[in-house]
Write a structure and sequence with these properties.
Keywords: Isomerase, RNA-binding. This protein has about 240 residues and is an alpha+beta fold. It contains six helices and 17 strands. The two termini are about 15 Å apart.
């Protein structure tokens, strides 16, 4: 279910704020009845009208995107930098990313126009596994890697336990390649975790999200999720709550 004003805005009738005004003014009907409360939620089966005009909702679409570095995880940017939706020029639906990856982080990102699905995956109680490959400055000692596994104190609280695996170490370049698996989605979390142990991230890539991988894709490429994959993600998210 989605908030009524969001459905109206997403259908292109008005901005979210203007949609709220239309509701308060009594210009919106749900299943033939005028609605004046902003907290109302509707399902895809509910009939929504604005000033007597039916709101046509888009068919839901779900994409897996291999986000390159140097791209913003947004639909627009006030600094005119490249955004993820620039790679979806042939898609008519108004899609947006589920969560985000930093400007300098590459890897697996999901996009959709299904607000209920996006909210389900981003819910704080959702513990879907996210696997990253990190290139660090210097070689972290075993005890420092163990501290990441146990959970480390950051400014917004202690992180949940993680799984950490050293993949390689380059003495000449004084850098290490480490795989880390987390279940949280805090802002810049992986980068902050490694900064906290004194080994800043040089390069970061999200390799896996739940059971989804980047297999078969190059940076900047897209594929649509199968109906079975969408169902699996729903089940995975619901089982974690």
């Amino acid at each position: 279910m989605e908030r009524l004003q969001k459905v109206i805005a997403h259908a292109g009738f008005a901005s979210r704020r203007k949609a709220e005004e239309l509701i308060l003014e009594g210009k919106v009907k749900v299943n033939g009845k005028i609605v004046k409360e902003l907290g109302v939620k509707v399902t895809p089966n509910d009939k929504v009208e604005v000033n007597g005009i039916p709101v046509e909702r888009e068919e839901p679409v779900y994409f897996l995107f291999y986000k390159p570095r140097g791209v913003i995880s947004s639909v627009s940017d006030d600094k005119n930098r490249k955004v993820v939706t620039d790679y979806f020029s042939g898609i008519e639906q108004r899609i947006y990313p589920i969560g985000r990856l930093d400007y300098d982080t590459s890897g697996l990102l999901l996009l959709t126009n299904d607000g209920e699905f996006a909210n389900m995956l981003m819910h704080p109680s959702n513990e879907i596994e996210k696997v990253y490959v990190v290139k660090t400055k210097g070689m972290p000692a075993k005890e420092k890697l163990r501290s990441l596994e146990r959970g480390i104190r950051l400014e917004d609280g202690k992180t949940a336990p993680a799984t950490v695996k050293l993949l390689s170490f380059d003495k000449r370049k004084n850098s290490a390649i480490i795989e880390i698996s987390i279940h949280e989605g805090r802002n810049r979390q992986v980068r902050r975790m490694f900064e906290a142990i004194g080994h800043p991230v040089i390069k970061l890539k999200r390799e896996r999200y739940g059971f989804l991988t980047l297999q078969g894709l190059k940076a900047g490429e897209i594929r649509e999720l199968t109906a079975h994959e969408v169902k699996q993600l729903r089940v995975l998210a619901q089982n974690k709550k």
